[in-house]
Amino acid sequence: MSMEYPTIESIIGNTPLVRLQRMQGNSSNTILLKLEGQNPAGSVKDRPALSMIAEAEARSAISPGDTLIEATSGNTGIALAMAAAVRGYKMILIMPDNMSIERRAAMSAYGAELILVSDGMEGARDKALDMQRQGLGKVLNQFANPDNPLAHYGTTGPEIWQQTNGKITHFISSMGTTGTIMGASRYLKQKNPSVQVLGLQPEDGAQIPGIRRWSPEYLPAIFDRFAIDDVMDIGQVEAEECMRQLAREEGIFCGVSSGGAVAAALRVSKTVEDAIIVAIICDRGDRYLSTGVFLP
């Protein structure tokens, strides 16, 4: 009898949900962290990357051999490069030139072509659409593509609901494209409208990889402010200090935006009792080593 072995695609998702043990001190609350760095390409973005390619294929909008183009600050690009490699696409990724060397190297390892721009994510997004207009490839457009939040509505939200036995009271996620928070919150609020959904953005002047304060003209089309209960600002220093503390006290090695999400969870924990607070740990810390953020 032949055995069915898993493929790399089939092990995306079903990530662990672990309890914060030391950092919250004595509290009646439970803070749980969803370890998305356990995905095969190392981040929460594995979910929408596969979803956007698979759903576009199912609609016959793309087919293997096509060239795909995407603007990315890092994690989506790495995830798309992996998914494109598995499914047989050429991948062109456009990225701000201030992103870490590890991110560039990972994209190249999967065979993607990189184009670096000096005018940030806004410039990268504009260039991707310009290249599509020139017929150089097809843009998946994670910022406006409903298959991005659909991935989290279909997987991340249900996993969290099941892993907490439906007892989750608060959901916290950093916001970049906003796909994670849009999809997961839609599912969680359908199950229990009283679940509090809190989105995180960097405070003015903070440079936290993967999350943004978008100007109105670049606000992701998939974002619906009414789908979340509150937006919290997080500072650079607070996010980085919490990230380092997670590694040293909890053994959880993650990136800066994940540190921000846990800092926000700890803030919320001080204002409530008997709560089950879930925060997204969106990637792993080894993606940021060259930036020096872990040095004492």
Automatic annotation (TrEMBL):
Instruction: Identify which cofactors the protein needs according to its UniProt entry.
Output: pyridoxal 5'-phosphate
What's the Enzyme Commission number for this chain?
Answer: 2.5.1.47
Q: Which residues carry this modification: N6-(pyridoxal phosphate)lysine?
A: K45
Chain positions recorded as pyridoxal 5'-phosphate binding sites? N75, G176, T177, T178, G179, T180, S257
Q: Which residues form the Tryptophan synthase beta chain-like PALP domain?
A: 9-283
Q: Which GO biological process annotations does it have?
A: cysteine biosynthetic process from serine
Question: So which domain of life are we looking at?
Answer: Bacteria
- This one is known as Cysteine synthase
Family statement drawn from the similarity comment of this UniProt entry: Belongs to the cysteine synthase/cystathionine beta-synthase family.
List the Gene Ontology MF annotations in alphabetical order: cysteine synthase activity
Question: Entry's PROSITE patterns?
Answer: CYS_SYNTHASE
Q: Catalysed reaction per UniProt? A: O-acetyl-L-serine + hydrogen sulfide = L-cysteine + acetate
Keyword terms of this UniProt record: Amino-acid biosynthesis, Cysteine biosynthesis, Pyridoxal phosphate, Transferase
